[in-house]
Amino acid sequence: MAVGDRRDGVGANADGDKPCRERNSIDERYRLVAKATNDVVWDWDLEHDAIVWNEALETSYGWPPGHVGPGSAWWLGNIHPDDRGAVSAGLNAVFEGRSDLWSHQYRFLKGGGGYADVLDRAYLVRDASGIPLRMVGAMLDITVRTQLEAQFRAVFEGANIGIVQFDPRSVLALRVNAKLCEIWGAPESEIVGCSLAQWTPAEDAGEREALHRRLATGETLQDRFEKRYRRRDGRLIWARVNLVSQTLGDEVHAMAMIEDITEEKRADARRDALLSLGDRLRELRSNAEVVAMTAEILGRTLATTRAGYGMVDLPAGLVTVAHSWSSDGQVFPSQTLPLDEYPASIASLRRGEVLAVPDLASAPELDTDAALYIAQGVRAVISVPLLRRGRLVGVLYATEASPRAWTQNEIDFVRDVAERAWSGLTRIEADEQQRILNRELSHRMKNTLAMVQAIASQSLRNVTDIEAAKHALAARLIALGKAHDILLTGQRESAEMEAVLTSALSLHDDQQPGRFHLSGPDIVIGSKAALSLALMMHELATNAAKYGALSRPDGRVTVAWSVVAADEDDTIHLTWSERGGPLVQPPTRKGFGSRLIERGLAGAVGGEVSLAYEPDGLVCRVMAPLSGFQGNF
How confident is the model at residue 30 (pLDDT cuts 50, 70, 90)? Predict the structure, then answer.
């Protein structure tokens, strides 16, 4: 392919041939260069509108010389119609003298069909007066690069992590993807062209400045770290950052890939908080300490405005809010509120439902409750009920001064905290009950041992028949033991009167029909009265078996009791009466049994006991205040 005009210079002398030889040498070198490159080189004679091309037009783009037109019309006609106008406009701008350099990226038709993406660059040659003479250019095939850029652009834009390209010296953002805009909660227009420093919270400024100084030096970096960002709405988030910065020639390129790990961090914090709460609850010894610790851990972990615990008294219709935690350290005194001020909330909590409201201003289901919450500076609330045997006894809550969308993970966390707090409260309550039981057991054992000592001492005093005394002592101790069994079957130190009587008389029940007849209202009596009454019944039955109605097959015993109303204290009237036994004779002397009957119960309950030896059988009457019988209840 000839480039330029060649003149032979016929008839010229030796000196005249020198310029021609030099020009021919330059043209040859130019031809060889154009032949060696894979890029299309073209030379456009503007005066005659003739373009010559090198072989690369055929070898790289498939256009044989016979199919190539002589002028610019062929060239421009093979540019993609959508790109043709911009190419023409760019050329005209160069011709009009705005610049001698021209560069444009467009799509050029290949000889075999299809378009190649090309980068065309040319230089304009003018005459001395500035009129364009020719334009020499080179067309570079960038199809592969364009495809790679398209692929990169697709990955860049479609990535599930935020990506930002930035100038490491000024830390100005040059390009961002949609995911980064989502992570920071800001449009692209507020990120690109602005400093990345604006997204770092002020409290992390020192760490940020240290990194920026390293970037400004052009140091090659490939770091992976975690840092905090402050979103456009002011909310802090955590991110995992992969940072790459490197120098290519005179340019320094930097890119950061940012993954939002806020929920991951929060999950770690919630897990650590539950472990810490479990460990610390084991060390606490009072309900107040448990409530205070639980509220603090709940509030700090969820980063809420306030958190606390309310103790619910359903019968009284009250809730006592105590030990409330506040993010600003403010101390709130305990306060007791009527439940009927929050009817919708309490109804939901009594059903065992978690109350999680993101914005109380848009919560019609809470009716008037919402207005009370808002009046107290609460816009979002999450409350978890604590139930005992299906009954609401407490509420663990966290509140926010501004609207907040509670996540399911946060709701589950509050549930877990409530369960652990309830376990801690239950343990402390059980420990306290155990301490009370231990104290009462010690007290009861001392009383029982004193009673056993008295029974043994009196039973064995002045005895002449050791065997009879042993049997009497054993029977009395058995009666005492049965009375204790009755007391221990209940949850309190009390028992039904009829149960005490039945147990005490069981030793003497020979299964004869109608042997014993018990009648009277249901009365619960205390432990002291129960033990004394059991021993009294045992002594009466023992005497009846030896000398009275129970010594005969047809003998009968009736025990009846009633409660007589009185102005100051109701009175119990109890009567033991025997029928069908031998003729009754008053004893010539009174032993321990008689004294136990007459004085034991009277001393325990503060009443009066009388024995009447009537012809039909022994009658024992007891009259004592009801409060005396229920004294240990």
Answer: low
Q: Which ranges of 45-142 does DSSP label H, i.e. alpha helix? A: 56-59, 72-77, 81-95
Distance CA 139, CA 158 (A): 32
Question: What's the rounded mean pLDDT across residues 207-232?
Answer: 89
Q: Which CATH superfamily is domain 37-146 in?
A: PAS domain (3.30.450.20)
Which of 459, 463, 440, 631 has its CA nearest to residue 532?
631
Whole-number Å distance between alpha carbons of 188 and 173: 10
Q: How crowded is residue 219: how many other Cβ atoms within 10 Å of its Cβ?
A: 13
CATH 3.30.450.20 region(s) of the chain? 37-146, 159-260
Do 607 and 586 form a contact (C-beta atoms < 8 A)? no
Neighbours of 614 (CB within 10 A): 11
Mention the CATH class of domain 461-629: alpha beta
- CA atoms of 303 and 410, how far apart (whole Å): 11
Domain 159-260 has CATH 3.60.9.10: no
Q: CB burial class (10 A; 0-12, 13-18, 19+) of residue 335?
A: exposed
Q: Which of these, 558, 559, 554, lies nearest to 580 by C-alpha position?
A: 554
Banded model confidence at residue 565, pLDDT cuts 50, 70, 90 = confident
Mean pLDDT lowest among 55-64, 280-289, 343-352, 426-435: 426-435
3-state SS string over 486-511? HHHCCCCCEEEHHHHHHHHHHHHCCC
Other CB atoms within 10 Å distance of the CB of residue 409? 11
What confidence score (pLDDT) does residue 540 get?
A: 85
How far is it, in rounded angstroms, from Cα 550 to Cα 514?
Answer: 11
